[in-house]
TrEMBL record:
<keyword id="KW-0575">Peroxidase</keyword>
<dbReference type="Pfam" id="PF08534">
    <property type="entry name" value="Redoxin"/>
</dbReference>
<dbReference type="GO" id="GO:0005777">
    <property type="term" value="C:peroxisome"/>
</dbReference>
<keyword id="KW-0560">Oxidoreductase</keyword>
<feature type="domain" description="Thioredoxin">
    <location>
        <begin position="3"/>
        <end position="171"/>
    </location>
</feature>
<dbReference type="InterPro" id="IPR013766">
    <property type="entry name" value="Thioredoxin_domain"/>
</dbReference>
<dbReference type="GO" id="GO:0045454">
    <property type="term" value="P:cell redox homeostasis"/>
</dbReference>
<dbReference type="GO" id="GO:0005739">
    <property type="term" value="C:mitochondrion"/>
</dbReference>
<dbReference type="GO" id="GO:0042744">
    <property type="term" value="P:hydrogen peroxide catabolic process"/>
</dbReference>
<protein>
    <recommendedName>
        <fullName>Putative peroxiredoxin</fullName>
    </recommendedName>
</protein>
<dbReference type="InterPro" id="IPR037944">
    <property type="entry name" value="PRX5-like"/>
</dbReference>
<comment type="function">
    <text>Thiol-specific peroxidase that catalyzes the reduction of hydrogen peroxide and organic hydroperoxides to water and alcohols, respectively. Plays a role in cell protection against oxidative stress by detoxifying peroxides.</text>
</comment>
<feature type="active site" description="Cysteine sulfenic acid (-SOH) intermediate">
    <location>
        <position position="59"/>
    </location>
</feature>
<dbReference type="GO" id="GO:0034599">
    <property type="term" value="P:cellular response to oxidative stress"/>
</dbReference>
<keyword id="KW-0049">Antioxidant</keyword>
<dbReference type="InterPro" id="IPR013740">
    <property type="entry name" value="Redoxin"/>
</dbReference>
<comment type="subunit">
    <text>Homodimer; disulfide-linked, upon oxidation.</text>
</comment>
Length: 171
């Protein structure tokens, strides 16, 4: 069962590597830190964009670039946080952010290892047949003070309801 607007998000602790001047090089690994969603996102408007995998064709070429280009516009429309979520580890997500030219924390890249949080939301996908295991599906959330105000899961092969333009239209 997929969560619906009005539902409070389940507790979560995500690992991520925040941008820093010391780790701007693609060769620099950085140090993962933990983000407690209920503590960090309380009282905030948060956009979560979930993708099946960093560096995968649709995610890398079509999904992420418009968010990088429109991050300021999304923040100006009221988003306190933009978070890209994937089942990849935080080191891969940090490299993905760097490769996409994200040079600040306007977008954070959070790891949902084993798609545990996505599974609680009913938004995980089994990609075992493609050698990728359990993953988060492609979806978008807008969270207002820990409650979902927008929940949209993409149909396989589509990129519409979780696009930057869809988020801008729903903020």
């Amino acid at each position: 069962m997929t969560v619906a607007p009005g539902t409070q998000i389940p507790p979560a602790s995500f690992n991520y590597i925040p941008h820093s001047k010391d780790s701007e090089s693609i060769q620099a690994c950085g140090i993962p830190i933990s983000l407690n969603a209920h503590e960090e996102w309380k009282g905030k408007r948060v956009v979560v964009i979930s993708v099946p995998g960093a560096f995968t064709p649709t995610c890398h070429a079509n999904h992420l670039p418009p968010f990088v280009a429109k991050a300021s516009e999304i923040h100006d429309k009221g988003a306190d946080v933009i978070a890209f979520l994937s089942s990849n580890d935080p080191f891969v997500l940090s490299a993905w952010a760097k490769s996409a030219g994200v040079k600040d924390n306007s977008i954070i890249f959070i790891s949902d290892g084993n798609a545990e949080w996505s599974k609680q939301l009913g938004l995980d996908v089994d990609l075992t047949s493609k050698g990728m295991g359990m993953r988060s599906s492609r979806y978008a959330l807008i969270i207002d003070d820990l409650k979902l105000s927008y929940v949209a899961q993409e149909e396989p092969g589509k990129l519409q309801v979780s696009s930057a333009d869809a988020i801008l239209a729903n903020l």
